[in-house]
Amino acid sequence: MIELDIIHLLIFFFIVLMQTIVGVGVLVLGTPFLLILNYEIIEVISILLPISIFTSFTNLLYFRFIDKISLLNLGGKIKKSFFIICVPAIFLGIILLKNFHNVIDFRILVSIIIFATLAVKKYYKKNILKLSSLKKNITLFFIGLVHGVSNSGGTLLSIFILHINKNFKDLTRYNLTYFYFYLALFQYLVFLIIFQKILIVNLLTSLIFVVFAGTLFGNFLVKYIKNKKFNFLIEFLAVFSAIFLIINN
């Protein structure tokens, strides 16, 4: 199991900070980072999912009681499709993970997913709203499937939310945090049932402090810094980690 030295604490603080500001980060960046540190994919998921869930939940509380945002109004038209199509697809992804985690090279798989999603974001994001309902639903199913297998569906989900909200920064943060919370929560519940990997108490206690510090600092920073810079930083680090995973494989 993971040992919380200064390097791990800094990594967790940074990815919590990124998720607070942009809406994604703990799983998108944490997965390749821990794979680089030679953790197995099952252990990576068991560590990162509770951090992601707690980070999103803390931010939802902040939005509701500090920013006074009505969380019942979040989600828009995509909410129904998300819960009916995307969330159940996570279950299938975890089943695939259970049966094939010993034969899949997750360093290569996560790297491929990172490059593919960033390519989609760069070249196809303007056409997402032009997709038919069927193609949107297929894409949501694919997001859930990929997320269940590899923890890496958050970037594709963020593309959907960003452009449905027409790039409104605050609305995008609120919506993405809401969806990401349920994405990670459902994934973790199914993961616990299938793999029975529970984060140990003393580790979880230490990470609670890191999550609180990261969310508070992140919500402070977001008021003064354009989150486009953080989006770019997440993409840059994701690409860098993907390249490192391939070279170090």
What would you note in describing this structure?
This protein has one domain. The protein contains 10 helices and no strands. It has helices at residues 6-22, 26-36, 41-65, 78-100, 106-124, 133-150, 154-164, 169-195, 201-221, 227-247. The protein is mostly helical and 249 residues long.
**Count of the domains:** 1
**Sheet having the most strands:** none
Mean pLDDT: 81
The unreliable regions are none
Multimeric organization: single chain
| Through-space gap between termini | 22 Å
**Beta-strand segment tally:** 0
Strand percentage, roughly?
A: under 5%
Structural class: mainly alpha
Inertia-based shape: globular
Individual helix count: 10
Query: What order do the SSEs take from the amino end to the carboxyl end, as H and E?
Result: HHHHHHHHHH
User: Whole-number radius of gyration?
Assistant: 17 Å
Considering DSSP H and I runs of 4 or more, what fraction of the residues is helical?
over 70%
